[in-house]
Design goal:
Number of domains: 1
Low-confidence stretches: none
Number of helices: 11
Distance between the termini: 30 Å
Structural class: mainly alpha
Length: about 325
């Protein structure tokens, strides 16, 4: 039988299990890239190992935030919990767990490719490391946003909240958690391509960095859309809703709409941008042409997420 205590413990378990899974897989991928790079160029093993250590530290950040939420849940009061509070805490666990899983695995691709690029261009190691760290920092934004949502949900948990409130906060956590997957994957695709291109031509670093930052910002907007919908769900007033089924129909469809819209759009944006990295590295004289063409394509692709956001906000205003 589903009880508030089971929900409470499940929330803590989901947060740390998903976060730990992402960190473990991500660090394994980064370690594999390190070994491949050292096998290719043993003479620069010091640079490669330093890159790996920095990358692993950033990959670890996701599971650290998941651990913080898990400890907050475990050391919170489990006795006297209501079903509403249990559902709310489950939303916290989903928010931080899903995002930590996605971010950690996505971040590892940048580390793996950076190590391989350093093996190819050892005298350009510092700039490749800089590009990797910047890329990983941007990729890590979803887990920060999810942590904020989890903390917002925690501040809303009170003894007298209704089951509808619990469903609402569960939907908010699901929205930001699932909405983090697409942007993480899209940014990973772009980061891998940019780190690879940096190893092809050291003179193209400045152009690659500028292009990557602009494209990452475009991909990041899909995450911002999910954040907006998640916050809107948290603070949406509950008027005459008393039926849990009506609550499910009211709060989950907007989250599903923006999450799926962000998923497809962000991956498409990352793929489209990644195809410009190699040409920029090998033909930097035509950089303005590649930049304009890529940003134009990204603008059209971005419209899909905007449409999903509009539908999500319309669903939020519908009365059932």
């Amino acid at each position: 039988m589903l009880t508030p205590k089971i929900l409470h413990l499940s929330a803590a378990g989901i947060a740390i299990v998903l976060g730990g899974l992402g960190s473990g897989v991500g660090q394994g991928i980064a370690g594999l890239g390190t070994l491949e790079a050292m096998g290719r160029q043993p003479m620069v093993s010091n640079h490669i190992i330093r890159t790996m250590i920095l990358g692993l530290a950033l990959i670890e950040s996701g599971v650290i935030l998941a651990l913080v939420i898990t400890l907050m849940l475990l050391f919170g009061k489990a006795d006297g919990l209501t079903m509403a509070a249990g559902l709310s805490e489950l939303g916290m666990g989903l928010a931080i767990g899903l995002s930590a899983l996605a971010v950690s695995v996505a971040s590892s691709l940048a580390v793996k490719q950076a190590c391989v690029s350093i093996a190819r261009q050892p005298f350009f190691a510092q700039k490749i490391i800089t590009l990797m760290i910047i890329s990983q920092s941007i990729i890590g934004a979803p887990v920060i946003f999810s942590f904020i949502i989890a903390m917002l949900i925690r501040t809303q948990i009170k003894p007298d909240i209704s089951i509808i409130h619990g469903i609402k906060y569960l939907a908010a956590g699901f929205t930001i958690g699932f909405g983090s997957i697409g942007p993480s994957v899209g940014q990973a695709i772009l980061s891998k391509a940019s780190c690879m291109a940096a190893g092809l031509n050291k003179k193209s670093f400045g152009k690659l960095l500028t292009f990557s930052l602009l494209s990452q910002a475009v991909i990041q907007t899909t995450l911002v859309f999910a954040l907006v919908v998640s916050i809107t769900i948290i603070f949406k007033p509950i008027k005459a809703i008393t039926d849990p089924i009506i609550g499910l129909v009211s709060f989950f469809p907007p989250g599903i709409a923006i999450s799926l819209g962000s998923l497809g759009t962000a991956i498409a944006l990352g793929y489209a941008a990644s195809k410009s990295c190699k040409p920029i590295a090998l033909d930097s004289e035509n950089y303005p042409l590649y930049l304009r063409t890529s940003l134009l394509a990204q603008a059209f692709i971005e419209s899909a997420a905007i449409y999903a956001l509009i539908i999500a906000l319309v669903l939020m205003t519908r009365k059932l």
